[in-house]
TrEMBL record:
MF (Gene Ontology): cellulase activity
UniProt record similarity statement: Belongs to the glycosyl hydrolase family 6.
The organism of origin for this protein: Caballeronia udeis
This enzyme's EC code(s): 3.2.1.-
Entries under PANTHER family matching the protein: 1,4-BETA-D-GLUCAN CELLOBIOHYDROLASE C-RELATED, PTHR34876
A family per Pfam: Glyco_hydro_6
Superkingdom classification of source: Bacteria
Lineage, top ranks: Bacteria, Pseudomonadati, Pseudomonadota, Betaproteobacteria, Burkholderiales
Protein name: Glucanase
Keyword line: Carbohydrate metabolism, Cellulose degradation, Disulfide bond, Glycosidase, Hydrolase, Polysaccharide degradation, Signal
Signal peptide: 1-22
Length: 310
């Protein structure tokens, strides 16, 4: 009886912790670029608005070649979220030939280095709950490679990433890049996602760092899922980046003016999970309404424009 009583108490304690964790929602990163800017510019009249509208919202932390020891960096981030009983959102963004030489060009030198890096990343997450977005744009940009061998290597690295998270971070919900609603035809994207290991992932991610409306993204996701079902016999949940889609897209992708922050990170609605993946205020590159701000750098001017929608 004593053993049963002790087990019952332990079960109740575990349930209470789990409920508290689930109820707390997603992690608000106190060291996001807008949060760091607000802390160091408290006298700036823009700081309270940026704090209220952006830095207080759960959003993703991106990890790449700037992260140093990625195992330590990821573990530190996930540890802090775990201590707050919240679920972190992470982006792995370091695949070779990242962004195909565009504004966010970079990534690791070769496939071997990437496999080592993604293994370290996944072990940093460990057994904790997390949402992980794997390599934004990586499937949509397959067309930039000239040979089948190059495309096959990219897809093989994505499959490897999914398999490492499955092995080393079994509690993480992993979403493979799926481009956006107006980039790659849905049937083509379905085939690419399947080749990238989506059958073993939680699902796929859409609209990362883009501006298309949530409805456009959901419609596209439904078409991708119809193609996945027809071609491969399964469908998947999906994430939509809502960080800057409050006014939809005007066709531009690089710091376009008159865009707006979108719906805040929330829980899933059916198959869709709306989250902030791109950090609002971080530049897309030295272009558009921020011609001198490099990709990934935070600009309070960009942030306020997104708050105001102008």
């Amino acid at each position: 009886m004593r053993i049963k009583h002790a087990l019952a108490i332990a079960a109740l304690v575990f349930l209470g912790v789990a409920q508290a964790y689930a109820g707390a929602g997603f992690y608000v990163d106190p060291d996001s670029s807008p949060a760091l800017w607000v802390r160091s510019h408290q006298a700036d009249p823009r700081a309270p608005r940026i704090k209220e509208s952006i830095s207080s919202v759960p959003m993703a932390r991106w990890f790449g070649n700037w992260s140093g020891d990625v195992h330590k960096a990821v573990k530190r981030f996930v540890d802090r979220a775990d201590a707050a009983h919240q679920e972190p959102i992470l982006v792995a963004y370091n695949i070779p030939n990242r962004d195909c030489g565009g504004a966010s060009a970079g990534g690791l030198a070769d496939a071997s280095a990437y496999r080592t890096w993604i293994d370290s990343f996944s072990r940093g997450v460990g057994n904790r709950r997390a949402v992980v977005i794997v390599e934004p744009d990586s499937t949509a940009q397959l067309d930039c490679f000239k040979t089948d061998a190059e495309r096959d290597e990219r897809l093989g690295l994505l499959r490897y990433a999914v398999s490492r998270f499955r092995q080393n971070a079994p509690a993480a919900d992993v979403y493979v890049d799926g481009g956006n609603a107006h980039w790659v035809p849905a049937a083509v994207m379905a085939a690419r996602l399947n080749a990238a290991g989506s059958s073993e992932a939680k699902g796929f991610a859409l609209n990362v760092s883009n501006f298309y409306t949530t409805q456009e993204s959901a419609d596209y996701a439904n078409s991708v899922n119809a193609a996945l079902t027809g071609q491969f016999g399964y469908s998947k949940p999906f994430v939509v980046d809502t960080s800057r889609n409050g006014k939809g897209s005007d066709g531009q992708w690089c710091n376009p003016p008159a865009r707006m922050i979108g719906a805040r990170t929330t829980g899933a609605t059916g198959a869709m999970l709306p989250v902030w993946i791109k950090v609002p205020g971080n530049s897309d590159g030295p272009c558009g309404s921020a011609p001198t701000i490099p990709a990934g750098a935070f600009s309070p001017e960009l942030a306020v424009r997104l708050i105001d929608g102008d």
